[in-house]
Amino acid sequence: MDAISVIRAKRDRGELTDPQIDWVIDAYTRGEVADEQMSALAMAILLNGMTAREISRWTDAMIRSGERMDFSSLGVPTADKHSTGGVGDKITLPLAPLVAACGAAVPQLSGRGLGHTGGTLDKLESIPGWRALLSNDEMLAVLRDCGAVICAAGDGLAPADKKLYALRDVTGTVEAIPLIASSIMSKKIAEGTGALVLDVKVGSGAFMKNLDDARELARTMVGLGRSAGVATVALLTDMSTPLGLTAGNALEVRESLEVLAGGGPADVVELTLALAREMLAAAGVHGKDPADALRDGSAMDHWRRMITAQGGDVDAPLPVARETHVIPAPATGVLTTLDAYAVGVAAWRLGAGRARKEDPVQAGAGIELHAKPGATVTAGQPLLTLHTDTPERFPYAIEALADAVTVAPVGTAFTPAPIVLDRIA
Ligand code: URA
Q: Which one of 207, 213, 239, 357 would you pick to mutate in the ligand 1 pocket, going by the greatest count of ligand atoms within 8 A of its CB?
């Protein structure tokens, strides 16, 4: 077997055989296939696609490149959620302890932000003392004691994907549906969850800009999960505007705490409850209703235990940025657009995100929204507050927001998009 014949086969729109796929993933993980060869193959896949059989075998080969975790010793059904990434998407923070409070165990392996999308681990690291890196034994202990754990995936889990994802990120090959689906599902299947709910984001702030692409990605991932014995469901959800009223690490932790205390923005609560109900149903747990667990404080109790078990000080004040800048509403009328991608880029430029994997992030940086699409605003009222420790970044963030806002004349009929756009099971 050699890399060039595999690349040529896909370049010429052929179907890769099982032995070709097994070999190329294994040889790439071992360093025998070079980065430039894998880049060429990834580009051929992006341009020419893959059949369902190829995607399934590719996913399986990535799972076999590393270890598989097993939570069966817990004796409790497990359920996980994966979001394809968005702006202001803090849902994992209230969701994991909420589902734990309702009786399922939640082993949540999460990632860091890259580009304009935020990452769950960066958000939680704004809590003083909190640790993302746990050994497999520590992860199991937190899960057993607290019902939920949110941590980084260890190096042993799907190492082929770690290498390939980093390569795709710098070769313009992230957006291939077969590669996104196999990347996400190889990690989730190797993680060993019994049930999985996928939150596939659609809109300007998401990888998938339109519903058709999002449906294809969702169907591919649901198929992969089910054939691996994981009860998998996908919700397609709106990412044309940021979720909630904050984008940025500590700002989003604060908003998540509001949800766990029974308050918080309506869209964050709605999506958290929708995903929680799907996770519990997929795991076959039919006990407490998640809305009750937000009201009665049991979700907050699970949060406090989970954060404390990972070294976090739940009572410490969250970091606050040193400087703020207010952007006013440009006109009086109905706010019809507050673009997720623009807000994500602006938050990133303020220091909430990173340009390279090794860059630090500012815990306090980000953007607060004072209105959401559908609201009536008055010219000059505060619309956005930008937060950063480094005020020299303000002009770049303001530039990113230049076309982010549309205000229509007073009285314009406008119905914001629903949060949940479709369900694929
Ligand atoms: N998230 C992943 O884990 N992989 C992708 O390819 C895209 C998003």
A: 207
